[in-house]
Design brief:
There is one protein chain. By secondary structure, the protein is α+β, with helices and mostly antiparallel strands. Helix content is about 25%, strand content about 25%. The chain has a five-stranded antiparallel sheet with strand order 1-2-11-4-8, with helices on one face. α1 (about 5-10) packs across α2 and α1 packs across α3.
Length: about 400
């Protein structure tokens, strides 16, 4: 990490060398006149105070809120007692859990068994000694999920950048196009062994570009605006098996242990408050657009949504093979039947907008979900349109 002087200088918009020179000047000044000395003492205190204030500001935006982000805090007395890829909960990994009755693989590269079994997956940790494996797709619905914890609740309206390092498993038959991150106020423990599909992840991470770079760590990130008091998050694949978009590896060696599955290694996660600009990512995978608005109780698109919709139109024109599914959602105001009808009408209104701007209707499908898939206790967040690009 850059020194506090460099960070403060960058934030202040001046050369780090010049900033350091000025600080040293005050330290080295030979005071002979009392009034001059008094003046420069005040200036020295002011500059020192500014330095620490700027450093504190820089530190605020660099703080990782995810506890135990690299899985390094675990019961090390157990790492030599079993297979290096033993079931996750066996090792008591601090601040992490499995939210359903499935499991995840845990790896500690310091285990004496690590080199003996490493031939199964020739991969080293991204950072530190530990990393975790997740099965995100299998025809028999096997799904692994991980649940992590923040050091403090997220603040409503603040924007955060979520980052994770992933590597596609060596013997994966498929690569899926995305996986999701669900943020919640409470810890989840559901008595199911396979899919978690009853929640909608607020953040979708596109991993389609990983294939076929197996066993190569890739950094994936996305942005999330908090609704307030989120303390936990779950990473995994939240789609039903028939809805998963996947690509097959034609050169995959046959291995019955993982045949027809998709397996990812994950390591070194972070969640940091940010001021970075969020760009709408157009490509395979679902994205959530919060700035598409409609008139209350109506399917008429409000004009302030045109900028976001035009960005999608531009992307569709640049990628003529790309198709899009438009999903409409409402809040829980009104009856279920009314909400279903309204969500369908709003999805169709977006499709009509695209068609009127030159996108062929054969590339667009629509569907309404009414109020059946809420993502927040704040009903304004549930009135939304989601897009899946294929």
């Amino acid at each position: 990490m850059p020194s506090p002087i460099i960070q403060a200088a960058v934030l202040g918009g001046i050369s780090p060398k010049l900033f350091e020179k000025r600080i040293n000047y005050f330290h080295a000044f030979n005071f002979t006149n009392f009034s001059t000395k008094k003046y420069f003492v005040k200036m020295k205190l002011l500059c020192t105070s500014l330095l620490f204030s700027l450093f504190a500001l820089a530190n605020l935006f660099s703080q990782n809120l995810i506890l135990n982000p690299g899985f390094e805090e675990h019961d090390k007395s157990l790492v030599d007692t079993s297979s290096f890829r033993y079931e996750f909960s066996h090792f008591g990994v601090k601040n992490w859990s499995v939210p359903n009755e499935s499991f995840s693989w845990f790896v500690d590269s310091t285990s004496k068994n690590y080199e003996n079994e490493k031939g199964y997956e020739e991969i080293n940790p991204y950072a530190g000694n530990a990393f975790v494996g997740l099965c995100l797709y299998a025809p028999f619905n096997a799904r692994f999920y991980l649940q992590g914890e923040f050091s403090k609740p997220l603040q409503a309206g603040k924007r955060y950048k979520f980052t994770i390092h992933v590597a596609l498993g060596q013997y994966s038959t498929y690569n899926i196009d995305q996986f999701g991150v669900f943020f919640g106020q409470n810890k989840v423990l559901q008595p199911v062994k396979n899919e978690i599909t009853w929640v909608t992840p607020q953040l979708i991470l596109n991993v389609s570009n990983i294939f076929p770079r197996k066993l190569t760590w890739v950094e994936i990130s996305g942005f999330y605006t908090a609704t307030g008091n989120e303390k936990y998050f779950i990473i995994g694949n939240f789609r039903k098996t028939p809805d998963v978009n996947k690509n097959m590896d034609p050169k995959k060696p046959v291995n019955p242990k993982t045949e027809l599955g998709t397996f990812y290694w994950v390591d070194d996660l972070s969640m940091k408050e940010t001021t970075e600009n969020e760009e709408i990512a157009i490509g395979p995978g679902k994205i959530l657009l919060k700035d598409i608005h409609f008139k209350s109780g109506d399917s008429t698109i409000v004009t302030d949504s045109y900028v976001a919709l035009n960005e999608i139109v531009t992307a569709l024109k640049k990628q003529p093979a790309l198709k899009v599914d438009v999903y409409g959602h409402t809040d829980n105001t009104g009856s279920a039947a009314q909400n279903q009808k309204l969500s369908e009408a709003r999805a169709r209104a977006v499709a009509v907008y695209f068609i009127s701007h030159g996108i062929d209707k054969s590339r667009i499908t629509t569907k309404g979900y009414g109020s059946s898939k809420p993502i927040s206790s704040d009903q304004s967040k549930n009135r939304r349109v989601e897009f899946i690009f294929k």
